[in-house]
Specification:
By secondary structure, the protein is α/β, with parallel strands linked by helices. It is 40% helix and 16% strand. An eight-stranded mixed sheet has the order 4-3-5-2-6-7-1-8, sandwiched between helices.
Length: 508
């Protein structure tokens, strides 16, 4: 990145530059109390903001501060709940306000800087959150990359390294031995176990199988809304469910009474191909075992012998990474300026040009422009659907929360783009008749409608005159969440016809 580009990016955060910020790194493994300590300082501050990786965590911190007598707003891409007189805000990190100064800011899960899709939001927070005291919490893997940038800005920082409050132990043997065997898994399961898989299908298949064995099961995966995940977490926390089956969604800040983490497999699909979990990912998940104050030791294991070596390797190695250029997002002004310079009306052409330009730049900078493949796919879809839409609107839509790889989600997005292009009011998605029943076979459809509601809510803040039914979203979401919660508990027959080999399909 050139010096002029660097200065142009910094100019987005002028207020932060004026505050002479002091940074405090609380870094270490899970169950080390790093976020707890930062939140205690936030609670005692006159004003502050918590920047969360998940809407669910923003909701939990808002509730925690409220219960402690500290009025707190909630700001995410889907809701804006402002409490009269509140000087504290719990927010998803993408909603960070660079124009509103506070005394204390907490940036959680800083290792998300390495995330290929969302890492730029953590860079923006690190550079731009306007707080006198900034607390940065997470794994130690990216600390050097962060401090290199703060050194360039001449902003002071302190480093506090924390250790786990309960030891984490790898069990001597895998659950099943040389190959997966259902009877061995059934015999080995104990209350407090969490089984981790890496696809919705594997999670539901495992949950159904374990439920058939007589256990009560809680289920957590990414497609579930925060409200449902919160309910499932509560069922496991209060003992209503003995076993938790989840994806790596539990690896980000969820405090659950897990005694033992069992990896159903050690491969994760990254959007392009299956790959082994890296050290930071494996530590974040495994570290959820052995909650302080409940267990003296946390345990972790795998299903099959040939995956033990990777578990030992990842938990035993140093998970710090070499300093790298922190990703920063392309801004709307960058896109508009380039579209006039080329000139072109095609957003995808601008994105492609910027990507090629940034790829040619030196990789020695502390910052690096970043355009994701999914952004490019979204840009192509917007150009195709509404070629004459203003570039400012196209850029805004490229930032919309969307699972573009899911056909139904993509089709709904197209309908929304057309409504904006034609300036035609669009009502809330209709609630289907099957919501009145208990048919678990509609679980996936209910999850998709929840995603439609999330997109509708986000668009409602951008285009309130077109997406007018934002006040109806909460009620519709409650109905869907109630249906989904019930469906998760009654879908015991889900895995009856699935072959055992489907579990861990990326294992080899």
């Amino acid at each position: 990145m050139s010096l002029s580009d660097f200065q142009a990016y910094l100019s987005r955060f002028n207020l932060a530059r004026q505050l002479r910020r002091q940074h405090h790194f609380y870094v270490g493994p899970t169950n080390s109390g790093k976020t707890y300590q930062a939140l205690e300082t936030l609670r005692q501050a006159n004003s502050g903001v918590y920047l969360a990786p998940l809407r669910l965590l923003a909701m939990e911190v808002r509730d925690r501060l409220t219960q402690a007598g500290v009025p707190c707003n909630l700001v995410t891409g889907e809701e804006l709940i402002l409490v009269p007189g509140a000087q504290h805000t719990a927010s998803t990190i993408e909603m960070m306000r660079p124009d509103h100064a506070v005394d204390v800011a907490v940036i959680d899960e800083i290792q998300m800087l390495m995330d290929s899709d969302r890492g730029s939001a953590w860079t923006a927070a690190l550079l731009g959150v306007p707080a006198k005291q900034v607390f940065i919490c997470g794994a130690n893997s990216v600390t050097e990359s962060c401090t290199r940038l703060l050194d360039a800005l001449q902003e002071p920082y302190t480093l506090t390294y924390l250790e786990r409050m309960t030891p984490l132990m790898i069990e001597d043997a895998s659950i099943c031995g040389e190959r997966y065997h259902a009877a061995k898994l059934r015999k080995a399961l104990q209350p407090g176990d969490a089984i981790i898989a890496f696809s919705r299908k594997d999670v539901l298949t495992l949950a159904a199988r374990i439920r058939q064995w007589g256990f009560q099961v809680a289920t957590i995966y990414g497609a579930l809304s925060p409200e449902v995940r919160r309910g499932e977490s509560a069922r496991f926390a209060n003992g209503e469910a003995q076993i938790l089956v989840a994806t790596d969604a539990i690896g980000m800040g969820l405090n659950l009474p897990i005694r033992r983490v069992i990896f159903a497999n050690i491969h994760k699909f990254d959007g392009m191909a299956p790959r082994p979990l890296n050290a930071t990912e494996m530590r974040q998940i495994a570290g959820r075992a052995g909650r302080h104050g409940l267990y003296d030791i946390g345990y972790v294991t795998v299903l099959e012998d040939d995956e033990q070596w990777h578990l030992h390797e990842m938990l035993g190695c140093d998970d710090t990474v070499a300093p790298f250029a922190l990703p920063i997002a392309v801004g709307g002004g960058d896109i508009e300026a380039l579209s006039q310079k080329i000139p072109t009306w095609r957003l995808a052409e601008c994105v492609e040009t910027l990507h090629a330009q940034y790829q040619r730049q030196s990789g020695t900078s502390a910052l690096q422009w970043h355009v994701t493949p999914l952004q490019y796919q979204q840009a192509l879809l917007i150009d195709e659907t509404a070629p004459k839409l203003a570039m400012r609107d196209k850029y805004r839509l490229m930032c919309a929360p969307l699972a573009i790889q899911v056909p139904i989600a993509r089709d709904y997005f197209v309908q929304c783009i057309q409504a904006i292009d034609n300036y035609q009011p669009r009502p809330l998605p209709l609630m289907p008749e099957w919501l009145k029943g208990q048919q678990a076979e509609y679980l996936e459809q209910a999850e998709l409608i929840c995603q439609h509601l999330s997109l509708y809510s986000w668009l409602g803040y951008q285009y309130p005159k077109i997406f007018r039914d934002g006040d109806l979203v909460d009620e519709a979401r409650k109905k869907l969440n109630g249906f989904i919660s019930l469906a998760l508990r009654v879908q015991a027959g889900y895995g009856k016809t699935q072959r055992e080999a489907e579990l861990g399909q990326y294992r080899r």
